[in-house]
Model the fold of this input.
Amino acid sequence: MRRRTFLASAGALAVVAFDFAWADTYPSRPIRMIVPFAPGGSTDVVARVISEPMMRQLGQPVVVDNKGGAGGIIGTMEVVRAAPDGYTIVMASPSVTAASPAINPNAGYNPLTDLTPIINVAASPTILAVHPSFPAKNFQEFIAELKRKPDRYSYATPGVGGIIHLQMEAFKALTGTSIKHIPFRGAGPALVAVVGGQVDIIQDSMPSCYPFVKEGKLVPIAITAPARRKELPNTPTLKEVGLPELNYMGHFGLLGPKGLPKDVVEKLNAATRKAVEEPAIRQKIEDGGAVVVASSPAEFAAEINAIYTQLKKVVADRKLTID
Done:
């Protein structure tokens, strides 16, 4: 009996010693950072900006690998299926961490249980804007006009089931308005349609939308940000106008597979924090219209939980499908 106890204890100590030794040597080979979208988008840009300074911190290459398709699901599933060893991670937006799994029953993963949050690197505000011909120029007039003419106006999105689609459906539910959804094949065509006057309303990321606002081709109605932006001092946040539930920015965050060891999570979190502390890296992110967040794993997990839970309710309440 004593011999069995001794052997069991020795075995447990050996496992612990192995874990510590393994954690001390991580990383010992290149890290693959999957971007589950095509090159050139905001998620891809943030990934590429931080990959080199992360390499300097970790002592191993951080290789960005674009695996687009199915609204981010294809690339994300590669991470879900990967070994939880820290060598395969994903740079994700809310489309991956909330919208796609909220509306698509065949997504194949639950963002709360099948992925390990590492860090919310940065976040981008979105602007709710209208074509200049729209008869309202501020939020109060905007809501009044929508209520006065239900289903008269339309909003453009990059596609059915994306984060913007579900955010706008939540907006409609909370404000008691009815606006027609016009999906496009991507953010660019959706934006062009509103700038051109074929569709009335858009909610889009600040980096994409702001140049048209600056040129007077779009009129800003509200913005999702912790406070008013210096570029748009007269545009209120959604929190200011009574919609705090929707006043969140689109995150660009790193996640790993389920079961990623705590030591590995902490190493990746620390390396990313140090990367975005570099003035040149922070400037590159901010020049793109985003803000550096550099959250803890727990803070990022809480944010994902809040957005995913909200969007699941929106999908259920409004009986939304991807068909």
About this structure: The first strand starts at residue 31 and ends at 35.
